[in-house]
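note to self: dont lose this again. the chain is below, predicted strucutre after it. 282 aa total, dont forget to put it in the shared folder this time
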Amino acid sequence: MNPQVTLEELLGQLKRIPAEWLDTDGHKVLESISIVVERINDLTIDQDLIKIILSEDPYALDVFRLFLDMSQDIFANEMRIRGVMGDFTSIRKKCGNNSEEIAEILMELGLADVIDTHRSHEWTLQDVLWDRYGHMRGRAMTAQKRGSTLEDAVEAILIELRDEIGITFDRGGNFVSRSGKHAKADFTVPSKEVPHIIIEAKGYEATGSKLTDVLGDILKVLEVKDKDSHYFFVTDGIGWYRRLSDLKKIVEHHQRGDIEMIYTISTLQDLKENIRDILASR
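---
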């Protein structure tokens, strides 16, 4: 087992949980937006022009999808029912060899009319605010998923352990102690009915009521869990910088031995090895 972590060490590990949009592909799409807008300029939008643009720059497909106001999944479904199979990423890769077929479908979906409509539209302040609200709401919904992103990372290492040494685990729900008491847990190994290892995973990018909920969740687990059950806490996100007092209390529980170890995304492999060691010593 690793030595105890301090508040200062934990703060040094915290980093922004990926929002999963402005990655390498995101930067390429932003570059392609400028290229496509300049390329079409005031030209007549026809299938041949779309074909040429797609063959020159596969990320132009992302730009045309944005013109059509479709998510990647919806766009891929529209392509699928018209004979172009695969998810959006694989369809993008087909733009080199299948640009004519994809351009034909884009025209069928009304790309030319949409672009012409946007060209003739004079944006008002109301339009700007509506558009900004849509993007902000999208970012807010993405932020809500960051906690799940952290849980998915924990689940990934548990799946690795399942494949490597045959462990079993449950995700979510209430575990049951030997005294018959119940409490929520993000993960239990080997099961909710036999919670030998309990893992809580919470990530925060912004402040809010949920930042205080985690303290209550931790206290409930500590009240209910069996003394010989191992309890780990996994967290990350720069939102903790706004709630240092809460994080300090969690670290204090760790240093008293209530929480066996606190991990971040940077130290998840340590969690994996600690679980392996615990199970090997049984």
